[in-house]
Amino acid sequence: MVNFYSGLFRGPIDHNASSVINAVANDGIFVGESVELSTSTLPPSELLPRVESHGDMGFYGVAVGGDADGVYADSDTPTAANEAASAGEGVVVVTQGRCLALVDGDGGEILIGSPLTIAMEKTLELADASTDLVVARALQPLAAASGINLIAIDIQREGPLP
């Protein structure tokens, strides 16, 4: 896979086309990782939403930066250099628009425009069942059985796969 945005170290692809939210990390979050809103109780003095690594239940957006100043990396096992934020630190999340995200290609070949849904943990995958919620579209192809890779996506939250 070729990353067409190799000069982009953090942040959305296009600031004019993105909704970028500041939040607080509830756990360690990596750049490019999918996150969900946290269900934990917020401290009374905290005004920003809390996000955490998503499981298979929710999707809020994709972490694109944060206090830890991590950078994008094509890796199944991110390192400290890829950390966006530790627990309690600020994290920047794209909730709509274009950004790089970790996508799992093991669910099938992903073409440009393919619908993406929530994978089991921290990633997105090809939406292929009528019950899958489409949260984004692929802007780059990804070969089948290629594991987790960083590709450009467009977050639009379309709902159930038609």
Overall SS class: mainly beta
Task: Write down the CATH topology of the largest domain.
Answer: Beta-clip
How widely separated are the two ends? 28 Å
Low-confidence stretches: none
Envelope shape? globular
CATH class label of the largest domain = Mainly Beta
How many domain regions?
A: 2
Can you count the helices? Answer: 0
H/E element order:
EEEEEEEEEEE
Residues in helix, % = under 10%
Biggest β-sheet, characterized?
9 strands, mixed
User: How many beta-strand elements?
Assistant: 11
Average pLDDT confidence is 85
Over all CA atoms, what is the radius of gyration? 15 Å
- In the CATH hierarchy, what is the architecture of the largest domain at level 2? Beta Barrel
Q: What is the percentage of strand-forming residues?
A: 35-45%
Question: Helices, strands, pairings?
Answer:
Layout: E1 19-25, E2 29-30, E3 34-37, E4 50-53, E5 61-66, E6 83-85, E7 90-104, E8 115-118, E9 124-126, E10 133-138, E11 148-160
Parallel strand pairs: 1-4, 7-9
Antiparallel strand pairs: 1-7, 2-6, 3-4, 3-5, 5-7, 7-11, 8-9, 8-10, 10-11
In words, what does this structure look like?
With 162 residues, the chain is mainly beta. It has 2 domains: 15-95, Beta-clip; 102-160, no CATH class. 0% of the residues lie in helices and 41% in strands. The protein has no helices and 11 strands. It has strands at 19-25, 29-30, 34-37, 50-53, 61-66, 83-85, 90-104, 115-118, 124-126, 133-138, 148-160. Strands 1, 3, 4, 5, 7, 8, 9, 10 and 11 form a 9-stranded mixed β-sheet that branches. A two-stranded antiparallel sheet has the order 2-6. Strand 8 and strand 9 form a beta hairpin. The chain starts with 18 loop residues before the first strand and ends with a strand. The mean pLDDT is 85.
